[in-house]
Specification:
This protein is 15% helix and 32% strand. By secondary structure, it is α+β, with helices and mostly antiparallel strands. The chain starts with a helix and ends in an 8-residue tail after the last helix.
Length: 197
């Protein structure tokens, strides 16, 4: 997890304390290892929470059901995230709507802990000013679950051309041949077996 992305909603001083994605671990959790707290929230999706063709619409609620656990090295956040996603079918460009549920497990290291000092900045998330930003970890988990080529239905036939007998209405198993418009002139020229040169 990148330190840059961890601080995306904050400043150099750490995560934005007013963000619904920010957890104040000093207030929410004791530093004593083994201390746990359930953290359940519905938070609005930020802009661009998804892939190019499918994602969680901005402002749509994302449900977080997490457990925050104090460990020697920091805070372990784990649990489930659920959200409704929408987008375009990669074949016919029709609407796609799905419900996703993903598991999140992310360690946030305390400053100057063994994990903090022994890992690169991009390998682990950090606790900055006693606060953690859950959004990058949740974003990564949701994006990994989204299909790169979403379909409105498994048997979607694809785009429907303008002419009659479009693919969407061709019976299953029937040939779906169509001449490329760039070759149409040649087809007309040589139709009927003409050998004109």
């Amino acid at each position: 997890m990148s330190t840059k992305s961890t601080q995306a909603h904050g400043t150099q001083d750490g995560p934005d304390p007013t963000s619904p994605w920010t957890v104040d671990v000093a207030r929410e959790l004791s530093r004593r290892p083994g201390t746990m707290k359930r953290w359940v929230r519905d938070v609005p999706a930020p802009e661009d929470f998804g892939l190019e063709v499918i994602g969680v619409p901005a402002g749509e609620e994302i449900h977080l059901d997490l457990r925050l656990e104090s460990v020697v090295e920091g805070v372990l956040a784990s649990g489930t995230v659920t959200a409704d996603v929408s987008g375009e079918c990669s074949r016919c460009l029709g609407a796609v709507a799905e419900h996703v549920e993903v598991t999140v497990t992310e360690l946030y290291a305390y400053p100057h802990s063994a994990t903090d000092s022994s890992t690169d900045a991009e390998e682990v998330s950090r606790i900055v000013n006693e606060k953690i930003d859950l959004e990058p970890a949740v974003r990564d988990a949701v994006l990994l679950e989204l299909p790169n080529a979403p379909l409105c239905r498994e048997e979607c036939p694809g785009l429907r051309p303008e002419e009659p007998g479009s693919w969407a209405f061709v019976p299953a198993g029937a040939p779906r041949e169509r001449i490329d418009p760039r070759w149409a002139a040649l087809q007309e020229r040589f139709a009927g077996g003409s050998t004109e040169s």
